[in-house]
Amino acid sequence: MARRDAQDGEDGFGPAGLDGWRHRTLAVIGLGQIGGSLAAAARPLVARVIGIDRDPEAVEHALQAGRIDTGSADGFELLVEADAVAVAVPVGAIPDVLEAARPHLRPGVLVTDTGSVKEPVVDAARRLLPPGVAFAGGHPMAGTERWGPAAADPGLFRGRTWTLTPAPPWGEAAARPWIPLLEAVGARILVMDPEEHDRHVALTSHLPLLVAAALAGTARRGAAELPYLAQLVAGGFRDTTRVAGGHPALGRDMLRANWPRVAPWLDALREALDQLARAAARGDGEALYRYLDETRRFREAVLGAAGVTGAGGSTGGGANPVNDTSTAGHDIDGNGETHVRRHTHPHP
Length: 348
Hints:
Layout: H1 17-21, E1 25-29, H2 33-42, E2 48-52, H3 56-64, E3 70-72, E4 84-87, H4 94-101, E5 110-113, H5 119-128, E6 134-140, E7 161-165, H6 178-184, E8 188-191, H7 194-222, H8 229-232, H9 235-240, H10 248-281, H11 285-306
Helix pairs in contact: 4-5, 7-10
C-alpha cells in the first residue's frame, strides 16, 4: 500500500495538513519514552497537548519538562477536550485503555496507538471504540532499551520509520490526517496492512529481543565459572544484548501477541546457528568466511537503506544485497558443493 500525503483542503476531520493540527488538541495516553517523546515533539505543532498517565510522577515530570499543557493521573475525563488521541502504552494494556477511554471520546476524534503489534490492537479498536471515532494503528520504529518519562526525547523520531496501519471499517481516511503531524516530528511514514506489519516486525524487532535475552541469559549461566567475565565484556556483548535491557513488560507483551509469526523465524535462526556450529566444528574456514562475509554485506546494506548510523564498512558495490537473494541460504555444511537453498517463507 503506497503512502498518501495529506492534501490541501479538508482531510475528513477538518482542515488538512499541518495547519489543521495547529487548531487541534492532542491527548497522549502514556508518558513514557514513546508517549513523552511524541508529546514533546508535537507540542509546538498543535494547539494544546493533554497528558494522561496512571503514574502521577510521570504527569508531573511531563508538566515540569514543558511537554504537556495539562495532565491527569486520575482517569480519562480530559479526553473530552481532545481532537486526537495517541495511546502509547504496552500492547497488552491497550484494550483496557481503549475501554476506559471510550465514554470520553467525542464523535469525530482521531485515535492511534504506538504498539509494536498491530492486528490484535486493530481488533480491540473495532470492538471497543464507539461509532464516529476513527482509528488507525501506528508503530514508530524508534524505541530504545530505556523507558520511563526521563527517557523521552523530542528528537526520538527524527529519520525513523513510523508505520500507519489503516484497516476497515475506518480505512485510509483515518490514517491520512496523522501523516503531516508525524512527518513534522521527523518521522518517515510507511502505510501498510496490519498483518503485513506484524509479519515484518516478527523478524526485524521481536526475534532480536529473543536473541539478546538468550545471549544475556547464557552469559548469566557462564558467569559462575568465568570470574573475569565482567572485565572482558565490551562492545560486541553490549551491542548484541542491547534490547535485552528494555522493560520486561514491553517484551513480554509483544512476544505473546505476535508469537505465531515469530516462531518460524526462530526455527530459521536455530538452523543458521546449527550450520555455523557444524562448520566451526569441522574447521571449515572457507564456509565460515563465506557466510560471515555474505551476512556482513547484507547487514551493511539493510542498515544503510534504513538510515541507521554506524553500519560501517562498504557494501562493495554491485547488486544491492538487501534484495539480492542469489546467495541466500548458502549451504555451509561442507558437503562438497555450495548450493542455493531458499527458505520457505515462514508465513504463519
